[in-house]
Amino acid sequence: MPARDAEPFPRAVLDVLATAADRPVFEHGSRAVTGAELLDLVARIAAGLRRAGLGPGDGIALRLGVTPEAFATILAAHAVGGRVLGVRPGLTDDQVRHLLDLDVAAVVTQSDGSDGLTVDALSRTRAAGPPVCAGRPGDVARLLHTSGSTGEPKACAQTYAAMTAAWTARPDAWPPAIRELASRLDRYLVFGTLSSQVMFEYAVLALTAGGTVVVADRPALPDAITRHRASASVVTVPRLAKLVAAQRRDPADLSSLRALLVSGSPLTADRHREALDVLGPVVFHGYGQTETGTISLATPADPPGTVGVPPASVLVEVRDADGTPVPAGVDGELFVRTPAQAEGYWADPERSAEVFTGGWVRTRDLGRLDAAGHLTLTGRTRDVVIVNATPHYAGPIERVIAEHPDIAEAYVVAVPDDDTGEAVHAFVVPAGGRSPDPAALREWVTARLGAACAPTRVTPIAAPPLAPSGKPDKRLLSHSPK
């Protein structure tokens, strides 16, 4: 067992909780949980996991919501050295089964009414003392799964060494933009699931900065901000647009708000300026990937439309089609290195080799760096539709649609959507002259890939437009009348 000062993640987080002592660190309804209480909960759940025979290298899947117990269970599963897989809501049954087949030794759910291990039962275990962090640096600490639009979500494998190197719980390593954000996280509003990489890691940042994590059972904005007097939260671009529109129409009292972290998809310069004009200097625009973690973060003082200046610990290269770095001001594909990046996709060497190359992560995003180092995102090389900040690959959606008996061919493009940022628009070649039923197609896709992949629009075409190569040219479809 390593000495305490050499213990890996989550040692730094547990030390933060120990320092917090009697300070409330989690607020859930009328309940406030102190640092000491949360640390004791981590110790008891970790003891329960060890009693169940779980330890370093064992796969532990968590199917939990947003509660102090869920946060403690994540930390406890890491404390015993497990390979933690958070299964987020919204996946199909087949996708969940796929994830639970990734060498999972145990599944932890919330309540006593469930089969297997539950948080309720684990938390009743008596702990012999404070939790000890038993993770081995080279072991995979967590699997962060992607959207699952392929039908089988890819699981990004992050080691204990990488999680320990992350700056989130280490103030001495905070880049300037993170330090400024941290100073505004007095009351950080969380919702949805703590299996979200962004939601969890900024919760850790808030606690490290001396703030309180506030659970929003009803996360609608601006009501959740005013009801909880929140100082900060994470929003997608569509949620930001709705909040801005609501403030223009009927302004709510957002005087407590000091930071909105916009994450998941690019924010245009015009929309960025509008948000700053309406909401004030509270908009932080983050850029990162499941494979890399945070790459860059724009503060309210950075130029609108950029994602800020990547910190010194993050390397960003903009490369042309031949893989050669290009000068400032020139667009290209972004390759990055971050302290906490994944080492590859779990049990998927072929896809790993495409993305993780020579120590770099190929983001498949296009962008440019200006002379001052500000990063601007300009597009993406991946054929994806980003729905509610989650990328869904077009190819698998097309294949599922084309399997429908009324469809001969299918071509999927992304279209703007006020509710989800982007949505699926399917151009289809009917089979045998039959007219496809859009509602039936949506049900067909939803049953196989989930509702986010279902086409909101279906347009019959006689044949796709062709590029000079003779291949279908979806760029022309993207610009055709909708």
Distance between the termini: 62 Å
Architecture of the largest domain, CATH level 2? Answer: 3-Layer(aba) Sandwich
Question: What is the CATH level 1 assignment of the largest domain?
Answer: Alpha Beta
| Nearest-integer average pLDDT | 91
Please give the count of helices.
Answer: 15
Shape: globular
Number of strands: 25
β-strand percent reads 25-35%
Rg from Cα = 23 Å
What kind of sheet is the major sheet?
Answer: 8 strands, mixed
Q: What name is given to the CATH topology of the largest domain?
A: Rossmann fold
Stretches where pLDDT is under 50 for at least 5 consecutive residues are none
Query: Which homologous superfamily in CATH is the superfamily of the largest domain?
Result: ANL, N-terminal domain
Number of domains: 3
Query: Which secondary-structure class do the elements indicate?
Result: alpha/beta
What strand order characterises the main sheet? 2-1-10-9-11-12-13-14
Approximately how much helix is present in the residues? 25-40%
